[in-house]
């Protein structure tokens, strides 16, 4: 018996049937980071100090991408997201920018992919806006931090429950 | 004078004007990885041996996402991509799956974002297809490997040219 | 305390969390107009008399755009619209074409933006189909006429309730 | 002979064939405004002073919408835009926010619809972000200011050339 | 009284209002086929034997297209699909490939168009992947096989009930 | 050596590299039909006589779908289409509606898929608009009629050249 719920009996891909699942409140939080040269980080922060655009554009891009998750990830269900938020924080210890996203809805499927997609696209947008200064930036550690709701209940990174 | 070509004179975001740039052949190669538990990797490979779906679906998702780059990244130009390819390779040393993507076109702007977007979305798709088994997976090292063409010429990771 | 519900505590943009709102029937009606030269209006009406295309194409464009509202307006929620209708009426007193749209759903958020987007895109389509004859046309008075449903209840233009 | 180039011989709608047109540099500038209560304008400006989000989000929305013009306006050609810029300026005399957009490319068709779509969607986004405070706002005067390039050459509002 | 529910009182197109309909479980199954030369079918099957790509890519394309139905068919409602599956089977008697799709949701509208769109786009994708070998292929017999749920209840091809 | 140009050396799917191809004028014509009960056809024609909507909406849907071909068909290149036209003709001998589409561009790849996609989506739209009266309709004979341009030159149905 396969544990891969997206794979059918003969191995072919399909969208999992969620019509019998109950609609509960579900939340997912994901994070990631763009690691860059120290002077690129200074540039991003200075740009932000002036007009906030690197941070602001990446935040909007992440939110809009969460709404496109089902268009990007072939077997994701279309969802009526009730909230998406994206936070971007400079971190000298990387050096770089940390990105966190939270998605939630009342529905039949989890929103992990929506939170992860928001993080990934916010990171790609940061790369795009700073790449003229630094093509060597890397996107690192895009991962789920926490999920709540649904049959599998709560999952938190570090507790390693596969809920 | 700002080095951030997406930021206008007062700091506001805009699409860079490329109408005076010449149309040359441009290529970009990007890479990344999904790090997972050893048994998740075995599951992915076994699924692939049967029908190839984790690998196949993620490859298609990456290719289709490259064509959506300008819809996802706010200040990217719409491009007439002439090629996108995505490769996914298991790597026991991670353990996990390595993803590489190549994009090319004859045009006025580079295709770095298209290659990076293909990698990021293929990684997200791998996560989606395996997450029932392992929510702790991480997307790591999404980065540009090489670019060719355009005024700035060739850039390769390790040579640190900011072309 | 901010009255701008799309702005977070530090001023950053986010989608408002609507998961605790109740799902009620919501309706919004919006209107607008394309003002044009008298002969352009005659041309539009004559074209309509023959095959109805200026009117028909703009109506379809408005309906389809309402379904894309959450892709266009960064902080709008994706909605399961239950109805969209668009009406286009010639008005010699402008002279030009008046556009009205009604959107409704049973859901947690209002549909003002969907009705307004339908009107705006129907107006843009009218401009597009007639611009070979008249580049000087103007889109005027795109506004909400009425909304019903939700916690804030009914709002009607002229009563100036900010519901 | 019809002057409506989008209407075929029997009146049915079609995309005009532009394959024989020459690729020249084309520019279009459009404008519009959101008229609001004086206190709403103060709110928008104060929000901008803190983090720039109303202005920043609307600017990004306008730029992204310009890239979607051919998806919204049924008979518009898909275009390889080389630039889109959006400016938003408070104007106490309205009172409200003025929006201007410039689009350009080297190609076979004009970019009037792209500039107008950027303005319209930036205005809709401003409405969305401020509507909790003021549902009575109106979008006014969305119009072409200027176009350059192509067979019909230059057109400027006020000169009334229908090029 | 018109039986065409998409046509309004004066004949203009609109999305049917479904807000008063009850949300029930609805299922639709559709089918179709791509008829091709015998050697093209052998090529497709051999390609599948090696890596499964013609079959795999067409299956993914069909699933993703079902999610885009409301973007493609102007008067279709946006739906929260709970399942889409696509099956592709070689048939020497055509000769060619048979495609079947099932869509389901708990909602207010039927999912016939989603199942038919999945079939049509899977067939187009098969054509695309094999057209270098055989431009003469034909897509045949795209039709509804069965629907369940909703006020009209069950419909099955052959019973000719117009439910 | 594979004749399947979308399949790579190990069988994996990829977009064919067209960057070395020359940009020539390319045209493709495709056709298809929706077969229906005689009374459904009368209904469609009568609806058209009044306001033209079944025909008009399906025509617009076909044109807009052609522009979305590369989003629907995973390995299709994004194209700068220079023309799309869709014709719908009643045919009592089916009985039903015949659909024909022509697509053209000056570019590096053929436009067969764009013409076929326009036909398929126009047929699906006809089905959608008439399905309340007749769920038994069938889409038949979606096929390429003719292509011109490109290295393979002209292909016409009946001459069976595999260009």
From TrEMBL, chains A, B, C, D, E, F:
Pathway info: Cofactor biosynthesis; molybdopterin biosynthesis
Binding site residues for substrate: 75-77, 113-114
Molecular function via GO: cyclic pyranopterin monophosphate synthase activity
Domain of life, source organism: Bacteria
Enzyme Commission numbers on file: 4.6.1.17
Single GO BP term: Mo-molybdopterin cofactor biosynthetic process
Entry-linked Pfam families: MoaC
HAMAP family named in the record: MoaC_B
Family statement drawn from the similarity comment of this UniProt entry: Belongs to the MoaC family.
Identification of the protein by name: Cyclic pyranopterin monophosphate synthase
Organism, as annotated: Methylocystis heyeri
